[in-house]
Amino acid sequence: MPTTDALLTVSGLCVTFAGMAHPAVHDVEFQLPAGGSLALVGESGSGKTATALAVLRLLPATTHLAGSIRLLGTEMLSASPKTLQRMRGGAVGMVFQEPMTSLNPLHRAGRQIAEAISLHQALSPAQVRRRVEALLEQVGLSPRHAESYPHQLSGGQRQRVMLAMALANDPQLLIADEPTTALDVATQEGIVQLLQDVRARTGMAVLFITHDLGLARRLADEVVVLRRGQVVERGPVAQIFSRPTHPYTQELLRPLPAAPLSTPGESVLLEAEGIGVHVSMGGFWRRRSRTLLEDVHLRLREGESLAVVGESGSGKTTLALALTRLVPATGSVRLLGADFFALQGQSLRRARRHMQMVFQDPFASLNPRMSVEEIVAEGLGVHTNLSAGERQRRVAAALAAVELPEDILHRFPHEFSGGQRQRIAVARALVLEPKVLLLDEPTSALDRSTQIQMVELLRALQERLRLAMVFITHDLVLARALCHSLLVLHQGRAVESGPFAEVIAAPRHSATQTLLRAASCV
Question: Engineering a disulfide at 497: which of 63, 455, 487, 506 sits with its beta carbon 3.0 to 4.6 angstroms away?
Answer without folding.
Answer: 487
